[in-house]
Q: What sequence folds into this?
C-alpha cells in the first residue's frame, strides 16, 4: 500500500505513518521531508487540531492572523487549534524532517494530501486550479483566511458540482486502504 506522496511544487515528501482508520479515527500522523525553500500556503483547519514537531533541522511556522513566525528546533512541537491560520516552511538551506499529527484523525485531510500531491506530481494541479483547490478545501474541511474566505461559498459550490470528478481523483490518487473504507 502506498504511503509516500511527493509534491514537487511544495518541495515536500509526505509519508503517512498512521492513517486515521488505523487508530479508530483518533489521529493521522505524517512524516514530512521538506526541501530548502519548500512550504505550503496559509490556511486553517475547521475541525481538527494539528501538531507540528521538528525532527531534523529547523521548521518554520507562520501562525495566526498576525502571521507570527515560529522556528522550531529538533524535538520542539507547536499545536494549532481548529481555526488557526498557519503554514509551514523550511527556513534553511538543507532538507528538514518534521512530523504533523492531526487529532482527531481526518480521512478527508488524508485524501486531500494524496490528491493534491498526486495532481502536482503529474503536472495537473494548475491546469484546473480553481476546481482542484475547491475539492481539496472541501474534502479536508480547510479554508483560506482573510479576503479569500469571502469565496468559500463559491468553492463549496464548485466542489459540490464536481462530485464525479472528485470520485475520479480519489480512484486515481488515494490508496487502496482509503478506497476500501468508503
A:
Amino acid at each position: 500500500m502506498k504511503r509516500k506522496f511527493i509534491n514537487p511544487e511544495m518541495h515536500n515528501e509526505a509519508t503517512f505513518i498512521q492513517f486515521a482508520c488505523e487508530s479508530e479515527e483518533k489521529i493521522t500522523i505524517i512524516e514530512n521531508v521538506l526541501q530548502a525553500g519548500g512550504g505550503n500556503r496559509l490556511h486553517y483547519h475547521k475541525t481538527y487540531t494539528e501538531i507540528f514537531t521538528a525532527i531534523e533541522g529547523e521548521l518554520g511556522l507562520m501562525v495566526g492572523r498576525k502571521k507570527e513566525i515560529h522556528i522550531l528546533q529538533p524535538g520542539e512541537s507547536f499545536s494549532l487549534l481548529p481555526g488557526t491560520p498557519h503554514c509551514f516552511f523550511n527556513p534553511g538551506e538543507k532538507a528538514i524532517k518534521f512530523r504533523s499529527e492531526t487529532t482527531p484523525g481526518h480521512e478527508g485531510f488524508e485524501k486531500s494530501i494524496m490528491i493534491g500531491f498526486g495532481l502536482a506530481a503529474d503536472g495537473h494541479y494548475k491546469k484546473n486550479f480553481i476546481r482542484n483547490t475547491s475539492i481539496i478545501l472541501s474534502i479536508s474541511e480547510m479554508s483560506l483566511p482573510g479576503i479569500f474566505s469571502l469565496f468559500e461559498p463559491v468553492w463549496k459550490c464548485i466542489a459540490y458540482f464536481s462530485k464525479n470528478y472528485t470520485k475520479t481523483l480519489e480512484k486515481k490518487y488515494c490508496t487502496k486502504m482509503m478506497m476500501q473504507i468508503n
In short: The helical segments are 107-121, 129-140, 152-160, 163-173, 176-181. The chain is about 30% helix and 30% strand. The longest helix spans residues 107-121.
